[in-house]
Design brief:
Belongs to the sigma-70 factor family. ECF subfamily. This is Sigma factor. It comes from Actinomycetospora lemnae. Keywords: Sigma factor, Transcription, Transcription regulation. There is one protein chain. The protein is mainly alpha-helical and about 400 residues long. Among the domains are: about 90 residues; about 120 residues, no CATH class.
């Protein structure tokens, strides 16, 4: 055992290990609810014992073992669970993920977390339910966090997760490795899951582990399906975005917008890897949403400074993206490119058309405020910033918006 850990250390370890523990227990027990409850029990024990005893040398293994014992205790008290108890008691300890010789699962997916993503992305579930459920189980995100990622009310998201679990139980959807023939049908939901895990980790300074986990899953997917350009596109998108992390925070911890970042601080290795993946996608000539988003980020990454950005190319890529994956948020991002190529008045007309559909989205009001300011309509810009502030509780977003409002 190590020395007594701080509460911050325990919180970080719990966040990092949650998804792996739930995934492993789901495979062992064959029941998502039982696995999640058992992991929650283990986390409670950890939060009680670790402050005094110290963190075990292998905290993830400790949590899995403790959760498995708690699950067996539950099953022993439940006559209905006798068959499950026998199965779980016979189960060998989970294989070492980092040892390829210790992977004995049949099929192409050899990682518990990736297997759980594919399992939750069963075609019997609606796509939003697949993504929401896997975010809950993989990353341990709470319902409010998932609701923010989906831009829906918390109550709606809670119902969506409950319905997804009930559907899995009622339809007896198996927790198994998908066969090769099943992988393409599962892919869109899996990519959506991985990307939302990444965006949550990228947006939240305290959840960098989620961004790292998403990139790890993206690399596994690229190894599993090297001929799928959208898989490569997603990995490129995540790498190019993650490359900017060192420049996203000022010395005082405040967030720095893309236009103000010191590009010398970007991770050159991740940029180079991302650009290479984008070039590989272009050679395949099968554009999809993730490839196009990666290409947009590649244009930003290739410019030595903000002034040198090829906004015409970014606008053209947004036009393609809007054609293959139309959405109000894509249209809003396209409006930013329109502002740089056709001026703020043209962009404002687009943003105002999106106002009703994106009224709850604080970035719509933030973009609108910037366009109004550039047009000299300062009072309206201030009102738009107030509207943006009223629609976000994220401290980083609020700090940026307040700073902009105070500058006038």
């Amino acid at each position: 055992m190590t020395g007594p850990p701080s509460s911050a250390t325990i919180t970080r370890i719990v966040a990092e290990e949650y998804g792996r523990c739930v995934a492993t227990l789901t495979r062992v027990l064959g029941d998502i609810d039982l696995a999640e409850d058992a992991v929650q029990d283990a986390l409670t024990v950890a939060l009680t014992r670790w402050p005094g005893d110290g963190v075990p040398p292998n905290p993830g293994g400790w949590l899995v073992t403790t959760a498995r014992r708690r699950a067996l205790d539950r099953l022993r008290r439940d006559a209905v669970g006798r068959d499950k108890e026998a199965r779980a008691a016979r189960e060998e300890p989970p294989p070492d993920e980092d040892d390829p010789d210790d992977q004995d699962e049949e099929g192409p997916v050899h990682d518990d977390r990736l297997r759980l993503v594919f399992t939750c992305c069963h075609p019997a579930l609606a796509l939003p339910a697949r993504v929401a459920l896997t975010l809950r189980l993989l990353g341990g995100l709470e319902t409010p966090e998932i609701a923010r990622a989906f831009l829906v009310p918390e109550a709606t998201m809670a119902q969506r997760i409950v319905r997804a679990k009930n559907k899995i139980r009622a339809a007896r959807i198996p927790y198994r490795v998908p066969h090769d023939a099943d992988l393409p049908d599962r892919l869109p939901g899996v990519l959506a899951v991985v990307y939302l895990v990444f965006t949550e980790g990228h947006a939240t300074a305290t959840r960098e582990d989620l961004a790292a986990e998403a990139i790890r899953l993206g690399r596994l997917l690229a190894e599993l399906m090297p001929d799928e350009p959208e898989v490569l596109g997603l990995l490129a998108l995540m790498l190019l975005t993650e490359a900017r992390r060192p420049a996203r925070r000022a010395a005082d911890g405040s967030r720095v917008l893309l236009a103000d970042q010191d590009r010398a601080r970007w991770d050159a290795g991740l940029v180079a890897e991302g650009l290479d993946l984008v070039r590989r996608c272009l050679r395949r000539d099968r554009p999809g949403p993730y490839q196009l988003q990666a290409a947009i980020n590649a244009v930003h990454a290739s410019a030595p400074d903000t002034a040198s950005t090829d906004w015409g190319q970014i606008l053209a890529l947004h036009d393609q993206l809007l054609a293959v994956a139309p959405s109000p948020t894509v249209a809003l991002n396209r409006a930013v490119a329109v502002a740089e190529t056709a001026g703020p008045a043209a962009a404002l007309a687009i943003v105002d058309q999106l106002a009703e559909r994106l009224d709850r989205y604080h970035l719509l009001h933030a973009v609108r405020a910037d366009l109004l300011r550039r047009l000299g309509r300062d009072d309206e810009a201030r009102d738009a910033l107030d509207a943006a502030l009223a629609r976000t509780h994220d401290p980083d977003d609020r700090a940026l918006l307040i700073a902009r409002r105070d500058r006038g």
